[in-house]
Every structure is written in C-alpha cells, then in structure tokens.
Amino acid sequence: RKEVEQDPGPFNVPEGATVAFNCTYSNSASQSFFWYRQDCRKEPKLLMSVYSSGNEDGRFTAQLNRASQYISLLIRDSKLSDSATYLCVVNRWRALTFGSGTRLQVQP
Amino acid sequence: GAVVSQHPSRVICKSGTSVKIECRSLDFQATTMFWYRQFPKKSLMLMATSNEGSKATYEQGVEKDKFLINHASLTLSTLTVTSAHPEDSSFYICSARDKNRGDTEAFFGQGTRLTVV
C-alpha cells in the first residue's frame, strides 16, 4: 500500500466550479501535512499547510482528519490558472512523502 | 521565501558518462537536503537524504554507488549520477529546509531534467 494515496484524476471542471480533492495516508506517526502544487515540468510549490482545525486561504480550504488519516483540499470559484497537479504531502521526521498527485484542468 | 538553486536545469549526456547536479541554498543554511526523482506522470520519490558533513542516507532500492551524494557545506549538496544509462533519464529535484525555521515549508530547487542517450 502506498504511504500517500490520491485519486490521479484528471478533474476537468468549468471556471467558477468548486472542486474537492482527497488524500489518505497510511502512517499514523505522520507529523505534518501539506498541499503542494506542481505545474508541468516545474518544481512543486507549497500551496498550504493542513491543520486538524481546518484552514482557509482565500479560495482554498484544507482539512485534516487524523482519526481517519484523511486530508482534503477544496477549491472554490476555480480559475483557469488553478490548472495544475495538486500533491498531497506528508511529513514524518525530516523528509516529505508525496502522493502521486491529482491533476486539475479548469476549462473556460 | 527562501531560495534553493539547482543547476543545471537540463542536461543531455551519453550513456556511460557521469553527470553532477548541484543544489544550493542561497539565503539560508541547510543541514539536511533531500534528493527526489520524478518519472513522467509519477510522484516524486525520495532517493536520499543528504546530511552536511556526513554520509547520505539512501532509500531502499537506490544504489549509493550509482547516485553519489556529497554535502560538503551548509549551503551545497551535489548528486552525481555515475555511468548513466537511458533508464536514469528523469527529473531530479532537490529540496531543503531552513534549520532556523523548524520543520515547516520545504523549498525546492528548479529541478534537473536528465536525458541519457
């Protein structure tokens, strides 16, 4: 079983739509959690950290459920510029473990 | 945010030759850097953890004699792919954390696209 699992997509949504991504992780000792965004042939960039209390940054909302070992990302009012691959990332000790990513394509 | 510079961004080499990739933290000190490899449409896979002043820690299945890592200073780690073969063609990317910022954001280099012909 992969340590971090994500639906690969692609998710094809129209501009303005709300889209949600889910992720599960297998190691209960994982310490911190993130969503990264990766554009084609580019390095990953931090989108947001994920906390049990849930956190919001503009149109983006992230949620962590430690009991279920489940992480989510909600994007509201999708923009064309949101098209990218979204990586669920889990930290245990110093190294990050990446999910395979969920590809989002926002269409005009 | 902090800057990690990786060089070269793209390299094409012949089978059997060696290629060195550099990863520098430009405005912070990184006692630990991480090397990842990403195949097309696949996840980033951790190859090894590079520790300043000591030996790197390799993930299972990664050949340490093939992927030589040197972390000679707090701002520089290098990955050398020795005797490269076409199956080593991949996107290699390093990351580092600012030891003064704790275990929060990891900063990534721009990545190196290696093509072995």
Describe this structure in a few short sentences.
The complex is a heterodimer of chains A (108) and B (117). Chain A has 108 residues and is mostly beta strands.
Cα-atom Rg of chain A, whole angstroms? 13 Å
Summarize the amount of helix of chain B as a percent range: under 10%
What is the chains' assembly state?
heterodimer
The largest contact between protein chains, plus residue counts on each side, is: A-B, 21 and 22 residues
Provide a count of the helices of chain A.
Answer: 0
Classify the secondary structure makeup of chain B into a structural class. mainly beta
N-to-C span of chain A: 37 Å
Distance between the termini of chain B: 37 Å
List keywords for this structure.
heterodimer; A: 108 residues; mainly beta; six-stranded mixed beta sheet; B: 117 residues; seven-stranded mixed beta sheet; four-stranded antiparallel beta sheet
Topology:
The complex is a heterodimer of chains A (108) and B (117).
Chain A (H helix, E strand, L loop, with lengths): L3 E3 L4 E4 L4 E7 L6 E7 L6 E6 L4 E3 L2 E6 L4 E6 L8 E9 L2 E4 L3 E6 L1
Parallel strand pairs in A: 2-11
Antiparallel strand pairs in A: 1-3, 3-8, 4-5, 4-9, 6-7, 7-8, 9-10, 9-11
Chain B lengths: L3 E4 L2 E4 L5 E7 L6 E7 L5 E8 L5 E2 L8 E7 L2 E6 L8 E7 L10 E2 L3 E5 L1
Parallel strand pairs in B: 2-11
Antiparallel strand pairs in B: 1-3, 3-8, 4-5, 4-9, 5-6, 7-8, 9-10, 9-11
